[in-house]
Design a protein that fits this description.
Helix content: 40-55%
Number of helices: 3
Strand order of the largest sheet: 1-4
CATH architecture of the largest domain: 2-Layer Sandwich
Structural class: alpha+beta
CATH topology of the largest domain: Alpha-Beta Plaits
Radius of gyration: 21 Å
Largest sheet: 2 strands, antiparallel
Distance between the termini: 65 Å
CATH class of the largest domain: Alpha Beta
Number of strands: 4
Number of domains: 2
Bound molecules: iron/sulfur cluster
Oligomer: single chain
Shape: elongated
Low-confidence stretches: none
Strand content: 15-25%
Length: 109
């Protein structure tokens, strides 16, 4: 076997192993999330738009992309954070603890 064949085989093997590890990690993540969701009946994510300054910290810190910044006609001063995927919340509380204006509440119902 020539040197290049061995190198190519080695590279392909490493690539395949990385793909398998990535797939396993994704499956573990999905399982963890599903298990957590089973434990949670309902989660209520609320944003007080009178307090929200639209800086998007919640958008940045939420690991499951619950929030989107949107233009709301009744709050035209700035965009406001809207919990568009509240059902995906995993109760990590990152948004609650990092919101600079304490505009977000997250509660189990
Ligand atoms: S508690 Fe965590 S998962 Fe739920 S909305 Fe806030 S940042 Fe997202």
């Amino acid at each position: 076997m020539c040197y290049n064949t061995v190198i190519n085989f080695s590279r392909k093997l490493t690539e395949d192993m990385n793909n398998i590890r990535l797939t396993q990690s994704i499956k573990i993540l999905m399982l963890d999330r599903a298990d957590i969701k089973r434990l949670i009946e309902m989660v209520n994510v609320k944003v007080d738009w009178n307090k929200c300054n639209g800086d998007g910290v919640c958008v940045d810190v939420c690991p499951v992309d619950v929030f989107e910044l949107q233009d709301l006609p009744e709050h035209s001063d700035t965009q406001k954070s809207v919990p568009v995927r509240a059902d995906d919340c995993i109760l990590c509380m990152a948004c609650v603890t990092q919101c600079p204006t304490e505009a977000i509440t997250v509660e189990e119902e």
